[in-house]
Sequence to fold (244 residues):
Amino acid sequence: MIPAALAALLQQAKRIAVLTGAGVSAESGIPTFRDALSGLWSSFRVEDLATPEAFARNPGLVWRWYRARRHTIAEARPNPGHYALAAMQARVPHFALITQNVDGLHERAGSTDVIELHGSIARVKCSGCDQVVREYADTDDVPSCPDCAGLLRPDVVWFGELLPAAAMERAQRAACEADVFLSVGTSNIVEPAASLPRTAARSGATVIVVNPSREGQREGRNVHFVLGPAGEVLPEMVRGFVGG
Fold:
């Protein structure tokens, strides 16, 4: 149940920013990165699969891991939380959806202009010239860039890499301008994304954390908690909007 005061704030808000994390994707059956290190991949560490050094050392291994993960994600479907955010975007004058997820489920649910802090597993780019490549052979062999012959890699942010500057700038601006900031399915521990709710609170926004638990979350004067899965809480939020 959404407290009446928070429901009223949401309905009155002209600017809403939302940050989503792995918990939203988990409700669609997508395991977190570390949880996915099972089966054939149980003997590997994050450092073996998701760092620039890992790709330089064994590009074939890294490519096969992401290819397998991409195919798993392709079989997943958006859940009610994803659809609720798309519906909310249609009802709020200024709405920014920021995600740490790379699965593209927000777009598949109908959200537009999503700010992807960690990139997208559906795209690949050249490890040499950095351009996104649309057409390539989807096999276990690492394909090459058609322009510079550099090896292609997933267009995601690996451990040790900086977040895309333009995406982070848009996210920070949305946090600063928001009347209400929703943090959904994320522990708000990993920086720099974890700084966004704090930025919003300092700028005067009401921060609403939607998560099954408060573990790892920071308390604050403008921070409120609605405990529960995104797939249950977010549809309830949307039903509170006029025409929802």
